[in-house]
Structures are given as structure tokens and as C-alpha cells.
Amino acid sequence: MRGLIYKDFLCLRKGLKTFGFVTLGVIVLAVMFLLSSQYGNLAGSLQEIRADASVGADMMMGMLETSVWFMLFIPIAFMADVAQCFREDARVGFGKPLAGMALSHLKIVGSRYLTTLIYGTVSMGASLAAAFSISSVSVELTMQSLAAGVLNFGAIFLIYMSLNLFLIYLCGARKADLIQMIPLVVLLIVVGSFVMKNADMTDEEMSRLLLEWKDRITLFLQGGYKMLFPVAAVTYTLSYLGSVAVLKHRRRVL
After folding, report:
1. What's the rounded Cα separation, in Å, for the pair 107 and 244?
2. pLDDT confidence tier of residue 231, bands split at 50, 70 and 90
3. CB 242 within 8 A of CB 106
4. What is the pLDDT of residues 109-133, one digit of tens each?
5. Which helix (H) or strand (E) holds 168?
6. What is the distance, to the nearest Å, from the Cα of residue 82 to the centroid of all Cα atoms in its chain?
7. Could you read off the pLDDT of 166-208 as tens digits, one per residue?
8. With the CA atoms of 80, 82, 87 and 88 taken in that order, what torsion angle do they form, in degrees rounded to the nearest 10?
9. pLDDT, averaged across the chain
10. How far apart are CA 168 and CA 171, in angstroms?
11. What is the DSSP annotation of 44-69?
12. Tally of helices (H runs) and strands (E runs) in the chain
């Protein structure tokens, strides 16, 4: 089982280099952004925004704050690279030697799920390191609030990976790319529906609505992980058991 996990990380080694550079870039970009917002070119603009009590100014401040949150999401999103292991297995025909190994289906599937958890832990650690760097130069953003956001993003992405891994086992490794497009399609449908539903709003009404959603998301990010992590644990366990059943039915061939 340890050999399979080692093999998975060999498949991910190129992605790990990219992950390292991107994480470093996120930290540098976020710190430069915050330093500029306090001492640089953005400082004057932000001071004018704070002096403006209109809804547009509040929304602008919310967008600046939200941009920092989503910078921290980038390293966590690299967890999806685990799908590369399925593609590499299919490319080199690893299913045949795997079928001859004296390993149970529980261990074969478990190795891939453990790889995902290990990579996810590393990704969240990188995001927390970025959060620490940001909080050290920011007066308004604390480590506690940023860490809560990282935990929320990690739990949400773990739920996504639960569905992703099960669907790859169910539909086959060659459809991994198509399966990973599902969240993007859902997001486009949701955004398109939102735009069509509120197309008749004035700019002021749209600004007020976006501000309300920003406040809801911010409130959720402060403590939503307390609910999301138990859900993620249950979803991940069910996904694992379902994938084991599928692999047994497929006779270890994806």
C-alpha cells in the first residue's frame, strides 16, 4: 500500500513543482497587495473608499477583502491534481499488473484516497502559511479569520474530491478530465441563472444584492467549517466504500 502511495506521488512530481511555485507566488502577491493597500498606491484610493458611505464603496471594500480569501483557495485547488494518477495509470496500462498484486480492494482504493488526504493536508498547510504571511502585514485581516476561511475551503474541496474520486472509479479513468469539468459547468449554470434572474435590477440594487451575499459568505467563512468537516468526513467515507464496491465489480480495471 505504501508503494502505491509512493507511485502516486511520482505521478504528481511535476505538479508538485508547479504547486510550490504557485503557492510562493500567492504569498508574494498577497503580501504585496496588502502592503500597497496600507503604504503604497492603493492606500490613497482605499482611504477615499472608506470615506465614502455609499453602497458602492462598501461593495468595493468587500471585493478587495474577498480577493484575499480566494488567493488562499488557489493552493487548496491543487488537490484536484490527484486525478492525474488515474490518467497515468490508464496511459501505461497499470491495471494489468495491479490485478496480479496480492492486495485487497480496500488497500488499493485506500492508497488513492490516502494520497488525496496527504496532498490535501499539504495544500491546506501551504494556504495556512500564506494566511500567516498575510496576517503579519495586515491590520484588518487576522490569522484567526483567514485560517477559518482556509478550513472552509479545505472542507468544501474535500467534499468535491469525494464525488470526483467516486465518479472516476465509476465512469473510468479515461473520463477523469470530463468529470473534473462538472463543477465548472455547474458554476456557469448558477452564475448564468443569477444574471438572468436579476437582469432588470438597477446598478444600485445589484450593488446592494452583491453586498448582502458578500456579508453572508463572510459570516459563513467565520465558522462554517464546524459543520462542513463532519459532512466531508461522512462524504469521504461513503465515497471510499462506494469506490471499493465499484473496483470489485470492475475486477480492478478502470
Report:
1. 9
2. very high
3. no
4. 999 999 999 999 999 898 888 888 8
5. helix 143-171
6. 13
7. 999 888 877 877 887 887 788 788 777 877 777 677 767 766 7
8. 150
9. 79
10. 5
11. HHHHHHHH--SHHHHHHHHHHHHHHH
12. 12, 0
Report the C-alpha gap between 160 and 158 in whole angstroms: 5
Read off the amino acid at residue 198: N
Q: For 201, which DSSP code?
A: -
Distance separating alpha carbons of residues 132 and 239, to the nearest angstrom: 33
Using alpha carbons, select from 123, 158, 110 the residue that is nearest to residue 8. Answer: 110
Tell me the domain boundaries of the chain. 2-250
pTM of the predicted model, to two decimals? 0.80
d(CA 169, CA 254): 7
Output the nine-digit C-alpha cell for 129. Answer: 502559511
What span, in angstroms and rounded, lies between the C-alpha atoms of 115 and 23?
19
Q: For residue 44, which amino acid is it?
A: G
